[in-house]
C-alpha cells in the first residue's frame, strides 16, 4: 500500500511539473496598429526630448557597457505636437519598464503616443508605437519614429 501511495504521489508531481513547464511564457504582446489607429487611441502625440526623470535605472547592455535609463516618470520637452500637446510644453509620461514599458535615454528624442488615465497621468508602453529617433545617430537607418512622422505630417 505504501508503495502505491508513493507511486501515485510521484506520478501526480510529474504530471503537475509537465503541466507547469508547458504553460506559455508571459510576455508583452501587442497587436499591430497603424499610425492612424494609434493616433485615434492616443490622448497626446508629440516629438519630445527627454530632459529628466524621477527615477533612473542602470543596466548592462549586450556589449557589457553600463547604460542609465530614465524610467517610470519621464519629463519630455515637446518639440513638435500632433495631438493634445503644445510646442515648448513639458509633459510627464509614465512608463513602467517592468510592464512592457519604454526605456528612455536622457537627451534623446522620441515620438511619443500616450493615453491619459482617470487621474490625469499620461502613460505609454511598447504597445503605443512610442519610439526613439535613430536618424541623428545613423543617417542610413530609418527608425519607426521617422516612418511614422511622414504619415503624421
The end-to-end span amounts to 77 Å
How many individual β-strands? 6
Radius of gyration: 22 Å
Q: What oligomeric assembly is this protein in?
A: single chain
Q: Output the strand order for the largest sheet.
A: 1-2-3-5-4
* Total helical elements: 3
State the low-pLDDT regions, or none.
11-26
Q: Give the percentage of residues in beta strands.
A: 25-35%
Mean pLDDT: 81
Strand/helix succession: HHEEEEEEH
Structural class: alpha+beta
Shape designation: globular
Percent helix: 10-25%
Specify the biggest β-sheet: 5 strands, mixed, barrel
Please describe what this structure looks like:
The protein has 153 residues and is of the alpha+beta class. 24% of the residues lie in helices and 35% in strands. It has helices spanning 2-21, 35-41, 144-152; strands spanning 44-60, 66-83, 90-95, 109-116, 122-123, 131-132. The chain has a 5-stranded mixed beta barrel. β1 and β2 form a beta hairpin. 22% of the residues are buried.
